[in-house]
Specification:
Blueprint (H helix, E strand, L loop, with lengths): L3 H9 L11 H11 L3 E4 L7 E6 L6 E7 L20 E2 L2 E3 L7 H17 L5 E7 L10 H10 L6 E4 L11 E3 L1 E2 L1 E10 L3 E2 L9 H14 L13 E8 L7 E2 L2 E10 L5 H19 L2 E10 L2 E2 L4 H14 L4 E3 L7 H4 L5 E3 L13 E3 H19 L1
Parallel strand pairs: 3-6, 3-7, 7-18, 8-17
Antiparallel strand pairs: 1-2, 2-6, 4-5, 5-19, 9-16, 10-14, 10-15, 11-13, 12-14
Helix pairs in contact: 1-3, 1-9, 3-9, 5-6, 7-9
Length: 378
């Protein structure tokens, strides 16, 4: 049997800080090819990616998605054990990526290898693993999905192995995610002396009015599967060191995490309309630059969600909550390809100094993944 905990430790020893591959995908490829998977690197613009398939193209296909890149570890001296040591101490695996998400990748790789070795299914397995989830996410999973479309490869359903549980393995499955939008407002007025405001045009006053308008009322009251959308002001700046000078220019940034009552386009139109209204009222020019990093989505409960939820409940004794909480993940890209959900380990230590995971939990996750495959192909 393939030990998912041992594979996790070996992956942690690969220093794959975005965008470096660090040997992680090379290690996974060797493990998969020994089990008969056809593997291909699908790198794009220097971003390392791996596609692997067992079985016949076009057959009924189950997919897993994950990433081996990790965030920087910070000061190594702050760690109890070196961040890329993969140390296993008293049943706990230590190191950057132990939670997010080399353990999840190791669990589904080990599950896939043992499943096709022990009970070869009447169908196919596809594993898509990127080195660009913690970075810009422009040439990672999207590059693999583009390559799959061009080459006639397709998954029927997919699990993203991100850590989905807040405290206990089995308590939560992510069936969707909120969308994410960032808008930067640039207000341009006229510089002048603070004692003679009639000779100037203060851009900060216009920004304050706009931000007050945007935050005065909630965007919505929530939907069937989502909490209310949230708009947060994250920064206001004018670079003005003088207290007696009205600045010429000021900027502000807001971030919106939105549910399925909105789209990135509808929110962009709303922001531009409100900025234009304040500009008309004040005479201050307000430019708006919007970046949409993902749209909201939900995989509606049905046979796929019920299958995964049922297996998780049987293996953990917990009926998982179906949630859309949290930030963004590469599921936002996979959802345009096939039905997708997220289930992985407990995320309590992700991105922290002394990131770690119990080895027994990694092995349990591998068993859950393998049982899901067994039920899916039964």
């Amino acid at each position: 049997m393939t030990d998912a905990a041992d594979l996790t430790a070996r992956l942690i020893r690969c220093p794959s800080v975005t965008p470096d591959e660090g040997g992680a995908l090379t290690l996974i490829r060797s493990v998969l090819e020994q089990a008969g998977f056809e593997c291909r690197r699908v790198d794009r613009n220097g971003t390392p990616n791996l596609f692997a398939r067992w079985g016949t193209k076009g057959a009924r296909t189950f997919g897993f998605n994950g990433h081996t890149d990790v965030v920087p570890p910070g000061d190594p001296a702050s760690w109890t054990h070196p961040p890329f040591s993969g140390a296993v101490i008293d049943g706990t695996i230590w190191g950057r990526g132990a939670t997010d998400m080399k353990s999840g990748v190791a669990a589904f790789v080990a599950a896939a290898v043992d499943f096709v070795t022990e009970t070869p299914p009447d169908g196919a397995l596809i594993l898509t693993i990127t080195g660009d989830e913690e970075g810009p996410s422009c040439d990672g999973t999207t590059a693999i999905l583009d390559w799959m479309r061009e080459n006639g490869e397709r998954m029927d359903v997919c699990i993203v192995g991100e850590p989905s549980n807040p405290q206990v393995l089995g308590e939560m499955i992510k069936i969707g995610r909120r969308g994410s939008l960032t808008a930067e407002f640039t207000a341009t007025g006229k510089q002048g002396h603070a004692a003679y405001p009639h000779r100037a045009l203060n851009p900060l006053h216009a920004l304050v009015r706009l931000l007050g308008d945007l935050t005065a009322q909630p965007l919505d009251g929530g939907t069937a599967h989502f909490d209310p959308s949230g708009l947060q002001v994250t920064t206001i700046d004018c670079g003005n060191p003088a207290s007696n000078v009205i600045p010429e220019r000021a900027t502000a940034t807001v971030n919106i995490r939105f549910n399925d009552a909105h789209t990135g386009a509808s929110l962009t139109a709303m922001l531009r309309d409100r900025a234009a209204a304040v500009a008309d009222e004040t005479g201050v020019r307000i430019g708006v630059e919007v970046t949409i990093s993902g749209e909201s989505f939900v995989t509606q409960p049905g046979p796929f969600v019920e299958l995964v939820s049922g297996v998780v409940a049987r293996h953990t004794g917990i009926t998982p909550v179906l949630s859309t909480s949290g930030g963004t993940s590469d599921a936002r890209f996979v959802k345009d390809h096939c039905p997708v959900l997220e289930f992985g380990l407990v995320g309590a230590f992700m991105h922290q100094v002394d990131e770690r995971v119990p080895a027994a939990q990694v092995r349990q996750l591998k068993d859950i993944y393998q049982a899901i495959l067994g039920r899916y192909f039964a």
